[in-house]
Amino acid sequence: MAHDRIWDEARRELAGLPGGRGLNIAHEAVDRHAAGPRRDHVALRCHRRDGRVEALTYAELAAATDRFTHVLAGLGVGPGDRVATLLGPGVEHQVAVLGTLKAGAVACPLFASFGPEPVRERTARAAARVLVTTPGLHRRKVAPVRPRLPRLEHVLLVDGGGPAGTTDAGDGAVALTRLLAEAPADWTIPPTDPGAEALVHFTSGTTGTPKGAVHVHEAVVAHRATAAWALGLGPEDVFWCTADPGWVTGTSYGVVAPLAHGATNVVLEGRADPARWCGTLASAGVTVWYTSPTALRLLARAGDDLLRGHDLGRLRLVASVGEPLDADLAAWARRALGAPVVDTWWQTETGGIMVATPLDGTAPAGSLGRPLPGVEAAVLALGDDGRAVVRDGRVRPVEGPGIEGELALRAGWPSMFRTYLGDEARYGACFAGGWYLTGDLVRRDADGWLWFVGRADDVINTAGHLVGPVEVEGVLRRHPAVAEAAAFGVPDPVAGEAVAAAVVPAPGAEPGDALRAELLAHARRHLGPGVAPRTVDFVTELPRTESGKIVRRALRAAGVPSTPPTTGGAAMTPDRRDRPAAGGEAR
Ligand code: AMP
Fold it and tell me: Is any ligand 1 atom within 6 A of the Cβ of residue 225?
């Protein structure tokens, strides 16, 4: 079937706003079910950090989100305004995102493990008028940079704090609890154009500032359809996505897709570790688990004994995303969890799964699978710079099976990003000849299966989270003892890659353990634990091209850092306070 027809059919599965008033993600995810026979079905099952389990039906979720939207409306927030969230997994995050969409406003989730600088950078770039966070995150990450966020008008605190209008922080942040209790639960979603901006997800490139990928309400067509095609998701599933809410997976599949199916969406609040994962899978009766290779590696390290104590009898599918899933790990997961394992590939820019191994298990172990229905993929011939050759606006596919090239997708699927915030030129540069160039290198074998080779750029993928080297280098260079800095990825047994840095000391600075410790602490304080380097090595000069660009690959290939990552398992050891892949940060 032609690709357009496939998406048209997927579109027909959606309800649309009553009275032909358009398409709004929150209506498809919540109000549609609350107004029908699924109103008493459990929409959210939240495992609270204190061990309580809280269930919200679709009717209750509709009321909670209506209240949130009324609070926003009371602040004068409406269509097109951006609302940032800095929250770990929890009902509050789900309500904030869906309530924002109900207002016709734009949800902009941020990663709670970011330090103050990445939070400021992204909040400013989004020109967010409102930021929703916790008192603890506010104190540590927002208050220090608030004076540099003149366009941020309101900070709403989801728990703790004082009565409405005041908080212990006493600096203009407002406690939400009473505002929500006083708000009515009767919101009507305004007419929403399917092409209206709905979500902004930040991602990193090799160069420049973080990129804010803009997605529209129509993306829900792909969220829902791809979850059915790649994950076999349906209304009777109990679905759990472990991605942090600050990344695209945490929204597309952590919020929207399961709710758009009328399924039960499981949320694990607070610190995650293999024991809590197993407990949640068993006690919630999860049927489909969407997780990452890093999480599976942590589970494998914890040992089979842990799993033996839990009944995972309802689990029928484990799906992986974000990093390469090697055949051995997939085989372990299949055996230990007792369910088939599929791999899925996609990016912030694609908004939804584009390539996956089929549910029937026919893909060769270790492959990425094939494009989903409605998705056309090509493997494009590479130039000397390691990216697809573009001549006169045209690209050329590789000449045969097994040849490495850049993965490209025919532009036009519903969840495709519509721009990078404030950076049309960078957006335009992602397309050539009607193709979206993904920046990933793949091979296609003679049977049509795609195989992941690596990134075509210097972006670091740590535990499935992309880290832009420039952001790390900028913070390191701000330290007076640093003349030059380069950040790059080094292999890590748990996180896939760990962030490492090479530093040229400033004149007079004394390279050594004391300075190394100081730089690591400086980076962690400003960047947050999910982004800061795990190692710093001192070098006399950085390898550069003739035009002066840092050759980060050379550092990696040369074996810098000379010392192994200090944490052994990088960001992922279970006893760390902030654990990027595992989910939310402590409040
Ligand atoms: P993000 O935009 O943060 O979601 O990261 C997307 C990037 O993660 C992709 O461009 C790939 O480099 C990587 N990625 C995502 N899924 C997979 C996968 N299944 N296998 C290998 N790499 C993946």
Answer: no
Q: Of ligand 1's atoms, which has the minimum distance to the CA of residue 452?
A: 21
Residue nearest atom 5 of ligand 1, based on CA coordinates: 347
Per residue in 369-408, pLDDT (tens digit) is 999 999 999 999 999 888 999 999 999 999 999 999 999 9
- Please answer whether residues 504 and 483 qualify as being in contact, where contact means their C-beta atoms are separated by less than 8 angstroms: yes
Q: Give residue 347 CA to ligand 1 midpoint distance, Å.
A: 6
Instruction: Determine the Cα angle at 406 with ends 404 and 411, to 5°.
Output: 145
463 in contact with ligand 1, CB cutoff 6 A = no
Report the atom number in ligand 1 closest to the C-alpha of 247. Answer: 3
pLDDT in tens, 258-290: 999 999 999 999 888 899 999 999 999 999 999
Q: What is the pTM of this model?
A: 0.90
Ligand 1 atom with the smallest distance to the CA of 249 is: 4
Is the beta carbon of 348 within 6 A of some atom in ligand 1? yes
Q: Is 324 in the pocket of ligand 1 (CB under 6 A)?
A: yes
Whose alpha carbon is nearest atom 21 of ligand 1?
A: 324
Nearest-CA residue for ligand 1 atom 15 is 322
Given a cut of 70, whether residue 546 has pLDDT beyond it is no
Instruction: Choose between 573 and 512: higher pLDDT.
Output: 512
- Determine the pLDDT at residue 73: 98
Distance 431 CA to ligand 1 centre (A): 18
The phi-psi region of residue 306 (left if phi > 0; otherwise alpha if psi is between -120 and 50; otherwise beta) is alpha
pLDDT in tens, 167-210: 444 567 999 998 999 999 999 999 999 999 999 999 987 777 89
Local structure of 376: helix, strand or coil: coil
Task: Give the H or E element holding residue 278.
Answer: helix 274-284
- Counting atoms of ligand 1 from 1, which one is nearest the CA of 201? 2
Question: Does ligand 1 lie within 6 Å of residue 452's CB atom?
Answer: yes
Measure the CA–CA gap between 104 and 117, rounded to whole angstroms. Answer: 28
Flag whether pLDDT at 561 surpasses 80: no
Q: Is residue 323 in contact with ligand 1, taking CB distance under 6 Å?
A: yes
User: Taking 80 as the threshold, does the pLDDT of residue 583 lie above it?
Assistant: no
The answer to whether residues 315 and 338 touch, using CB atoms and an 8 Å cutoff, is: yes
Task: Quickly count: other Cβ atoms within 10 Å of residue 329's Cβ.
Answer: 18
Residue 66 Cβ inside 6 Å of ligand 1? The answer reads no
Burial of 308 (0-12, 13-18, 19+ CB in 10 A): exposed
> For the chain, what's the residue count?
587
Q: What is the dihedral of CA 54, 60, 65, 70, to 10 degrees?
A: -130
Q: Is 466 in contact with 203 (CB distance < 8 Å)?
A: yes
The 10s digit of each residue's pLDDT in 435-459 is 999 999 999 999 999 999 988 888 8
